[in-house]
Design goal:
single chain; 560 residues; Gyrase A, domain 2; Isoleucyl-tRNA Synthetase, Domain 1; four-stranded parallel β-sheet; 20 helices; 54% helix
Length: 560
Amino acid sequence: MDFKRHIAARVKAEGLTENDIYSMIELPPNTEMGDFALPCFKLAKTMRKAPALIAQQIAADYQTDGIVGEVSAVNGYVNFKIDRALWAKQTLEEVLSAREKYGSGEDGEGKTVCIEYSSVNIAKPFHIGHLSSTVIGSALYKLHKFLGYHAVAINHLGDYGTQFGKLISAYKRWGSREEIEKGGLRALNALYVRFHEEAEKEPSLNDEARAFFKKIEDKDEESVALFEWFKELTLKDVGKIYELLDVHFDSWAGESFYIDKMQPVIDELREKGLLKESEGAQIVDLEAYGMPPCIVLRSDGASLYATRDLATAIYRKETYDFYKSLYVVAYQQNLHFKQFFKVLELMGKEWAKDLVHVAYGMVSLEDGSMSSRKGRVVYLEDVINRCIEKARGIIAEKNPSLENKDEIAKTVGVGAVIFGALYNNKIKDITFSYDKVLNFEGETSCYVQYTCARAHSVLEKGGTARSCTAKEVCPQEFEIVKQLAEFPAMLRDALDKYEPCFIARYAVDLAQKFNKFYFDCSILNADEDTRAFRLSLTEATLVVLKNALSLLGIGVPEKM
């Protein structure tokens, strides 16, 4: 039952509709005050009374029933207390009947959402800097699917540009097929680093790189073959990381896919009088909108990111007819997205309003920043492996007889990496700390996973007797019930704000509430009826924690 709706339908307030009341109802900070509260301060102007008097009047007029058992007016608020046994019964029955589908819905039925994320560069290392885009995008993809949208996951590969000319030049000068096949992406990156070191001493190498890239554009057989090989090696390497992180894509169409789709866009810009020449370049003037010009073609006629992104957006609209199209890209690109969204709007594309830049902060390690050109990179694979090793060490110390140690260490280590990138608001910069993400006591996935293992152990020992009915619900039990009931609304809030951190924080909050209940209340040694109810409460908690972690791409071991 939607208790807010039940309350709103019965509140009598002059000049306000049921929906008005519904939108005003909030959760009090302290459950002793009530389960829901209606603040009356906004009503003072229209009702021409003090908020405290309005609250007293609404409370006096409200007819209590078997659902709302108590109504009181306190300092301008009307507080409502729900029958806790009824709330617990309804919530537990809903969770335990829906199970892995609890919280899901058909909100997005018939709506397609394109989500571009990760978007790694061909022949460049998959490093810690790619982590946020990859796991935020993946969580949003899973969340949209869970809520009934047709989600399209897109990896917009960086597979176009002079860097490929640099790689071919470096490979032909210093590389060998055998070394590259053996060393994979790391061997390719070593060549890339060497090229930049040598080019500082011999600048003519940059001209050679541009010439090789031109050969790729002109479909030179040898150059294209090398480029395709570099691409194949990259996808093989990054595929291992995506598999570990439970990340999937429906489209791998990168920048090069849109090269033959740019000219019609340039022609349309010209026809609509939007293109202007500036110092030899072709631009769209955005001064009237407080932005620098959007450069569409450089003075030498070469395209830029904006040119390709305009073509990409138009192609996606024509192909998927999206309801929304999300770009999970770091906040450093804020201006770029504002510019090309505005250009599409000026072109008369009314759907430009449906494009969303989901900006996020940067990830760094405690020992500083990175640069792939200078070889200062931290491979994401190394970070994941180090977390798995550290988890293996903790397991060996705390539970050496545990079965499937390696598999559990992998689930814990990978979960720590994902959760570490998702726990804070996405716009915040993150300094990644191995000690912090693998802390079993803090606000981490390890803590949540350990709570799941604890719940599983209780259920294993508790037998099959279950009940969703309680004669009385104690405060610790009720805190869990309320949290479980909030799960569906929290997911929709996370989707509306594109914030997977809401799910991560929810999981920690629920785990904390369950652990308080676990230590304060006897489960297995309680009387028969209480034990059956508390086992159902434990099972429902486990179901919802697993659902939350699953949406983040994190697994749950049964034992730890």
